[in-house]
Amino acid sequence: MNTKNKKKLLLENLYAQYQNCTACPLGFQDRKNIVFGYGNSNALIMFIGEGPGKDEDEQGKPFVGRSGKLLTKILEPVGIKREDVFITNVVKCRPPQNRKPLSVESKTCKNLLLFKQINIIKPKIICTLGASALEALIEQPIKISQIRGTIIHHKTLTILPTYHPAYLLRNRKEIEKFISDMKKLKKLSL
Ligand code: SF4
Questions:
Q1: Average pLDDT in the 98-109 region?
Q2: Which residue in 76, 109, 125, 183 is deepest, having the highest Cβ count within 10 Å?
């Protein structure tokens, strides 16, 4: 079995193991689907957001709502195809009213799923979308407006933090900075 197929199988097995997960409170909050993550199991770039929203919960796929469409629209001209990357979130179940995941929820889910996904895929670079995704990885509070676009080496991970696309929908003037981060991400992935 080649590496790509092996990684795909490992991800499928991981999903199968947790598709009915109730390990944290979000498992009991009216979720429709676990949003495991989607994309290329052999990806060089892995995007990590905060958690699924309403559309994602309904479809079981990450970044399919308005912010996901904006992300795709920005990535295409930069030369990053969604089918080449892997996209997921820190927590796999939708927090009620799209609130920020509680620390116990993030901690439980990243240990059960996110870190295992990273270990399987072994991306060259991780792009965190929004403050809480980066905070979950490096376990310290940050200010995203100050740290975005800066390469961070944390343990074995190389991380490029940037804004969450949902923030860009509300703050269009920041889109240029996001595009510049995506250009940097593309270069780092080569
Ligand atoms: S958010 Fe993660 S840990 Fe919590 S129930 Fe869902 S899959 Fe399990």
A1: 95
A2: 109
Range of the domain at 44: 3-189
CA-CA distances (angstroms) from residue 83 to 11, 41, 104, 151? 16, 10, 32, 24
Instruction: Look at the block and give the residue holding tokens 């990357």.
Output: 85
pTM of the model: 0.96
Would you put residue 122 in left (φ > 0), alpha (ψ -120 to 50) or beta?
left
CATH number at residue 33: 3.40.470.10
Show the ligand 1 pocket: residues with CB < 6 angstroms.
18, 21-24, 26-27, 34, 91-93, 105, 108-109, 112-113
Q: Which atom of ligand 1 is nearest to the CA of 27?
A: 5
Nearest by Cα to 39 from 26, 31, 49, 29:
49
pLDDT class for 117, splitting at 50, 70, 90?
very high
Q: Which of 50, 94, 105 gets mutated to test ligand 1 (max ligand atoms within 8 A of its CB)?
A: 105
pLDDT of amino acid 3: 81
